[in-house]
Amino acid sequence: MRPFPRGSPPVRGLRAGGKWTRYLVRVARAAPVLFAFRDSEPFARRLARALRAELRLVELHRFPDGETLVVAPGRAHHAVVVRSLHDPNAKLLEVLLAADALRRAGARRVSLVAPYLAYMRQDAVFGPGQPISQRVVGGLLGRAFDALVTLEAHLHRVPRLRDVVPCRAESLPAAPLVAAWLRERGAGGLVVGPDEESRPWVREIGRLAGLPWVAGRKERLSDSRVRVLLPDELPAARAALLYDDIASSGATLAAATRALRARGIRNVQVAVVHALFAPGALERLRRAGARRVISCDTVRHCTNAIASATPFARWLDRSA
Ligand code: R5P
Fold first, then answer.
1. Structure confidence by residue, pLDDT tens digits, 77-109
2. Catalytic residue among 78, 83, 135, 218
3. What angle do CA 314, 213, 297 make, to 5 degrees?
4. How many other C-beta atoms lie within 10 A of the C-beta of residue 9?
5. Of all protein residues, whose CA lies closest to atom 9 belonging to ligand 1?
6. pLDDT tier at 18 (50, 70, 90 boundaries)?
7. 251 in contact with ligand 1, CB cutoff 6 A
8. Cβ of residue 250 lying under 6 Å from some atom of ligand 1
């Protein structure tokens, strides 16, 4: 937010062009207005409360031929579209249409809050004939929006989100939220990541929560078949918190749960950032022996336990 001008505010009204008038105009312009799609309304309401910002709902009209008309109501100087992009194909097109609608209505800045940002895992050509979806989707969004913020985008081949999303883009870390959740519950035990990619996350959660941590190694055999190998030496622990950024088929976390139980750790709890959970995935995890499964609220799901609106609000405040 802009610095407060020196001196006292005028008692009788504001002089046109005066410093207080200019200050109030700047404040009004910086105040974002949230434009939420209905499927992200609960998260958007929490974000609006944290920001003390106005919230409006984007309306969708489906034409008989399958096309969609997106209507973002009213004007705003800084318009913030809020939508989580799981099950993403139609949603991506709709947020691009919303950005265009808002600019045409006069918005000078259009930002996107995407609690979950899709297509970040296809970040290389893994086999013949494949695209780098991360760059395609990142490029589309980065050209349509002035700023984009998400939680824990799957970034392993580039250091910063703005390397693939060409605008003021930021991936906020989820580790502080998970560590705070652990600390609030006084939870102990071993923090475990299922694969090499999860190593920096579990190291950070372990550091923040003051707990030991390890990361395993993963071999993916198919979409829903995974092998997880844990280190030969594990710190002595009776309980473990297994952590990953995404649960999709649930195969990774189910294999890691089984591996931990096979090593004598019977109390395995699971935390994920983005609860994508394909049909049957949660049951798969429970069958593997996970005692409790929790997630951040970036994707609406019955496992949501960790609220994440506050860091988004802080980021938007800082970028005002
Ligand atoms: C992979 O790189 C991610 O970090 C997750 O481990 C993965 O997306 C989990 O997928 P699934 O639940 O299908 O095993």
1. 999 999 999 999 999 999 999 999 999 999 999
2. 218
3. 35
4. 11
5. 247
6. confident
7. yes
8. yes
